[in-house]
Amino acid sequence: MAIISDDNNLGIKFEKKNPIIKAENIEYDNTFESSIRPKDFDSYIGQTALKETLKITLEAAKKRGKPLDHLLFYGPPGLGKTTVAGVIASQMGVEIKITSAPALERPRDIIGILMSLKGGEILFIDEIHRLNKVAEEILYPAMEDFTLDMTTGKSQTAKTLRIPLPKFTLIGATTKAGELSSPLRDRFGMIHRLEFYTVEELAEVVKRTAKILELEITNDGAIAIAMRSRGTPRIANRLVKRVSDFAIVKYDGIIDKNVANESLDILKIDEFGLDNTDRALLNLIINKYDGGPVGIETIAAALSEDIKTIEDVCEPYLLQAGLLQRTPRGRKVSPEGYRHLGIKMPSQQKKLFEDIL
Ligand code: ADE
After folding, report:
1. Looking at residue 163, what DSSP letter applies?
2. From the CB of 38, is ligand 1 less than 6 Å away?
3. From the CB of residue 198, how many other CB atoms can be counted at a distance below 10 Å?
4. Centroid of ligand 1 to alpha carbon of 197 (angstroms)
């Protein structure tokens, strides 16, 4: 239960007819990414299993005339958690309000947004694992009973205020499902992991984006970009733009396999989609720490990167591609990682690795 004191330093006052709470901290989504986002399931490529489940859930909610259960999406960044939320909203014909946990610092931030919702609307909270305790406790009754439970006044004169909220759907997104508290996790009716995309799926994403941007691209060109996109549509879309710059300036504007590969070579994105930071990370572990294991703090300090960027951006794909391994004693480069960098794995290291496996 959220506690609001009389002298409330939350800056919130209730007036009968005219509450002064406004929805703040709502992000308006007008980036390049949002301009090419699919708006319905037909144009949304990949995540087939998730799509099939959602279609049924949405139809059932519509038939019952009830809002959707609260949903939690988790997985590495760039796989389309916000995009799926947008598709759900447009398929349900409702508004979506997008915010992220770090923007909900003060209790009034979350209260303001909850009070601004209308029936059936979707509230999307990105990075939901970063919600603070107070905001989380405000969310519990809001999610469960659609109420805001608040106490005003001090001890003896304290009054409990129970404000009804319209029935809404919360969609939470996180790269770290494990960091969500269990009471919060338990209040989601559905929890889904988003998977990395296949090269074929990414090539479709690339072709769709090229069409929206009115770029000419061959099938081979799309596959070449897809192969270096680390299983991630956000990266594929960024690479389409970068490669199209090269195609326009250095070639005849058409993106084919050669144009794509040469541009990506110049951008130092290799055949696995690794960039300079990824290679620096693998090289560091090999050259300075005999292939590992080495702790994440040491790696971050040596690369002058923050731990979060390494954990959330670099590592998920290096692990998935089998180039890196996470062990209780730290990170190790796998034989595949050595091979990828063209470095021979010392036999002693190879033996250690085989022992772990
Ligand atoms: N752009 C980003 N993600 C996409 C997806 N899953 N399908 C189509 N276009 C996309």
Report:
1. E
2. yes
3. 12
4. 10
CA nearest neighbour of 290 among 348, 223, 248: 348
pLDDT of 114 > 80? The answer is yes
Q: For 44-81, give the DSSP string.
A: --S-HHHHHHHHHHHHHHHHHT-PPPPEEEESSTTSSH
Beta strands in 153-279 (DSSP E): 159-164, 169-174, 190-193, 216-217, 254-255
Classify strands 147-152 and 159-164 as parallel, antiparallel or unpaired. Answer: antiparallel
Q: Is the CB of 83 under 6 A from ligand 1?
A: yes
Identify which of 29, 41, 42, 45 to mutate to test ligand 1's pocket (most ligand atoms within 8 A of the CB): 45
Calculate mean pLDDT across residues 307-318.
Answer: 92
pLDDT in tens, 204-259: 999 999 999 999 999 999 999 999 999 999 999 999 999 999 999 999 999 999 99
> Does position 27 have pLDDT exceeding 50, yes or no?
yes
Decide: 112 in ligand 1 pocket, CB within 6 A. no
How far is the centre of ligand 1, averaged over its atoms, from the C-alpha of 316 (Å)? 20
User: Rounded to two decimals, what is the model's pTM?
Assistant: 0.86
